[in-house]
Amino acid sequence: MSSMSVSYCGDEMPIEQALDECFTELIQFQNHLHCHVRELCMMAEQDNDYITGLKKVLTIHDTIDQTSDLFKELKSVCSQVLGKPPKEEKDQAKKIIDDHKVARKKLKDAEKLVADSTNDTN
């Protein structure tokens, strides 16, 4: 791959190691999340009490948060690999980033409108 090193979870390491660790952890979190959600579904069938279900939901929320943190680390690693734009492309890069942010905001706003309208009809 490359002899490049990056910062991953506060440690400096070779890019290949960072990617391997990140994706291994993401897969593990997805597997845990899958199991926890299935367990929650089984709890409803087994007439477990609310508090037991609540604890399972909080565990699911924690796992989702940990997974989100790993995705943020992956974004950081990708940015480190790309590096900073050359001076002659800096303005163009800024415009592309700004346009991307605007497009993402529009998409999120549209998704929120759809979700809100769906909730209003229920």
Key features?
flat; mainly alpha; 3 helices; about 120 residues; 2 domains
Radius of gyration: 20 Å
Strand arrangement in the largest pleated sheet: 1-2
Overall domain count: 2
Strand residue percentage: 5-15%
Number of helices: 3
Major beta sheet, specifics? Answer: 2 strands, antiparallel
Mean pLDDT, to the nearest integer, reads 92
Which overall shape is indicated by the principal axes computed on the Cα atoms?
flat
Low confidence ranges: none
- Estimated structural class: mainly alpha
Helicity, in percent?
over 70%
**N-to-C order of helices and strands:** EEHHH
What is the terminal separation in angstroms? 52 Å
Count of beta strands:
2
Structure description:
With 122 residues, this protein is mainly alpha-helical. The protein has two domains: 83 residues; 37 residues. Helices cover 79% and strands 7% of the residues. The protein is built from three helices and two strands; from the N terminus they run ββααα. A two-stranded antiparallel ribbon has the order 1-2. β1 and β2 form a beta hairpin. α1 packs antiparallel against α2. The mean pLDDT is 92.
